[in-house]
Amino acid sequence: GPDFGYMHKEPLFEATASLDSFGNVEVSPPVSVAGKEYPLGRILIGSSFPASAGRRMTRLVRDFLYAQRVQAPVELYSDWLAVGNVNEFVNFVPTSDKKRFRMLLASPAACYRLFREKQKEGQGEATMFKGKGTALDTKRMTINKVLSNDVLAQQNQYVQRCIDWNRDILKKELGLLEEDIIDLPALFKLDKQGKAVPYFPNTV
């Protein structure tokens, strides 16, 4: 169409990785932060833990996004994930109130609370992960087995700390309150490299 344009660039000396995927470039709804308006929202990109040598988005892509100042990027910590994309743990849904949206965050803590609640209701033998096609699928996994798996619980405590780190960044950089956030029950497992893989469909 007459108003459409695009730009194509390729990094000359850097290899691209999963953090250069579209799933690692999200945008928030319009927000007002510390008196500054972002009518087109703010770009959210995933990166490594501050001061660490983890995976980062290719410099060419980062520089391009930062040069676009209208949606001033917010860097989140996503290198704890196997794929490493921000859309695996954060998304937004519209609402009809004054705020106009809520932020959704994946939450292992909320998942464990839900499972304990269902266990108390007598649903502990409900089958989980059916058809997942993983090692867990080789024998029937139930809510009771998930709750009694200490290794899985420790892994998800670690994941929850990673998400909580991002929660604090997002609250500050998007001007959010706790009431603007909805915790979605989610469960993760660490792979052999110590990176988290989601068991449930991600927040996309």
From TrEMBL:
Alphabetical list of SUPFAM superfamilies matching this protein: Pentein
GO molecular function annotation: calcium ion binding; histone arginine deiminase activity
Domain of life: Eukaryota
Gene Ontology cellular component annotations, sorted alphabetically: cytoplasm; nucleus
UniProt-listed InterPro entries: PAD (IPR004303), PAD_C (IPR013530)
Domain Protein-arginine deiminase C-terminal: 1-204
Protein name per Swiss-Prot or TrEMBL: PADI2 deiminase
